[in-house]
Amino acid sequence: MKLSGTREAGKADSWYEGDPEVLSSQLDGFLSDVPTSVNDAHLPISGAKVIIAPHAGYSYSGPCAAWAYKCLDLSKAKRIFLLGPSHTYYLRGCALTKFAQYATPFGDLTIDEPVVQKLRDTGKFQDMPTYNEVEEHSLEMHLPYIYKRITQTFSSRDEYPTLVPILIGDNKGPEEKQFGTLLAPYLQDPENVFVVSSDFCHWGDRFSYTVYAPGSDVNNLTSLTYRTRKPTDPPIHESIKLLDQLAIDAIASGRHDDFVDNLKKTKNTVCGRHPIGVTMAALEALAQDTSDADKYKFKFVQYQRSSLVEVFSDSSVSYASAYAIV
């Protein structure tokens, strides 16, 4: 199948600045606010070829995403795999792009047609419906950051990495392992990097998720209702943080099953749980051949929320950034 056309930047001027000069200044500001070193390592972190970063509007999640992107090591990158969840239609399995280019306010990113075709030839992937692909913000919100970082890394357009966008659908744990095994060789290739798109807890009645840990006891979870008084032991935002920390700890464990079990227990609304799950499965497959404790496990460097929820009528979305060394 021949790729063709350009996916336009549909969220520009609504979810982020469409003016390239204004956007460039904003991203530079976010990145400059990140320290020059994390975990005793200078940024970017050598070998940090995988990141988790959020995909909300930049006014909400842009500062958090900057932590992941500043950690990302693009020095050897020839292609960037972008894994995101589907928000616009129900997807079971995984899906590939039909576009030849993805637009950003800074310029177009070229899709890696040979790799996309190789993945398509496995028979394991669907094609993204054009309308849904254009509307999918879990992919688009990463494109300006990707373009910004590759221009900071490479001096010539001829050196810019290509892009491999993949939508990861609503798959069960064993299916995530299968896709993880399929993608593991690409992850192991030193010329590939992976960007995993995910927000964390979406809390509030409008998200149909009002889980609360009374007394900070995560083994006694309940759901708040409009009849519930303003709880203070702990405040709701602290309970949300506890729920997210459980998910973060499960991801950082490097054990895919731990993350699947955590989500079964808490039902945490981590929208990129399946892209994270597939990537964890790939990392875990690679980790079987090493004893290096610093490799193949996510390390979290930032956690933020859109607001601090105090009463039932409030809502918030959580954001986290992490990297993994491969």
From TrEMBL:
- The source's domain of life comes to Eukaryota
Pfam families in the record: Memo
Matching InterPro entries, A to Z?
Answer: MEMO1_fam
Which positions, given as ranges, span the membrane? none
What PANTHER family does the database record attribute to this sequence? PROTEIN MEMO1
So what family is this one in?
A: Belongs to the MEMO1 family.
Report the protein name in the record: AmmeMemoRadiSam system protein B
Q: Which organism is it from?
A: Xylaria hypoxylon
